């Protein structure tokens, strides 16, 4: 914000969020949602857990994406358009935090690009980012996305603050108020945490 003037941001609608997820799905997994639906039909998978397990084990897709494929494919398998509504823990988590969602939409694909072993697990009020162990969390807050990072031995400096009472399982927190703050510095801290979580 410059001199109190900022461009007004419109909240992201669920259908826009779904479109971004579907676009990232093709880029990240090599298949579109419709192509995944065909795979699910061919395999005869019907239950959510069966779809998630099958996609993970047979295609090496991370849990976060496999879960989204299973959730989104339900409507397509039934012949309806997919919906971004209740039942999607990520959509629910960000439903009242559009500023945090805007940051998440930019940050999440960059973190997923670290490797195919990045697992995004929705928890109550936050997303846990794991490899062999948790290396970060993404927690929506009023006007921002709090990014908790596990960086043992690194002194807090500038916006990389000590986690304090934010999360005892992590060492640091970065308060990200806009997508512009998803920069090489933040991604470097997250990549270091990811690399250490083997």
TrEMBL record:
<feature type="domain" description="DUF5655">
    <location>
        <begin position="91"/>
        <end position="195"/>
    </location>
</feature>
<protein>
    <recommendedName>
        <fullName>DUF5655 domain-containing protein</fullName>
    </recommendedName>
</protein>
<dbReference type="Pfam" id="PF14117">
    <property type="entry name" value="DUF4287"/>
</dbReference>
<dbReference type="InterPro" id="IPR043714">
    <property type="entry name" value="DUF5655"/>
</dbReference>
<dbReference type="Pfam" id="PF18899">
    <property type="entry name" value="DUF5655"/>
</dbReference>
<dbReference type="InterPro" id="IPR025629">
    <property type="entry name" value="DUF4287"/>
</dbReference>
């Amino acid at each position: 914000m410059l001199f109190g003037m900022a461009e007004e941001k419109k909240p992201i609608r669920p259908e826009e969020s779904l479109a971004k997820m579907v676009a990232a799905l093709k880029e990240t997994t090599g298949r579109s949602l419709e192509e995944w639906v065909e795979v699910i039909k061919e395999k005869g998978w019907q239950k959510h857990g069966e779809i998630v397990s099958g996609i993970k084990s047979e295609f090496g897709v991370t849990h976060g994406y496999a879960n989204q494929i299973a959730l989104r494919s339900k409507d397509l398998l039934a012949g309806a358009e997919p919906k971004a509504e209740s039942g999607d823990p990520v959509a629910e988590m960000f439903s009242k935090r559009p500023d945090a969602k805007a940051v998440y939409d930019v940050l999440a694909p960059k973190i997923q690009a670290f490797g195919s072993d990045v697992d995004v697990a929705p928890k109550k009020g936050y997303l846990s980012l794991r490899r062999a162990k948790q290396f970060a969390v993404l927690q929506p807050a009023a006007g921002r996305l709090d990014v908790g990072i596990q960086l043992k031995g690194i002194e807090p400096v500038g916006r990389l603050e000590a986690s304090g009472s934010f999360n005892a399982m992590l060492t640091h927190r970065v308060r990200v108020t806009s997508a512009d703050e998803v920069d090489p510095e933040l991604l470097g801290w997250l990549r270091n945490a990811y690399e250490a979580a083997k």
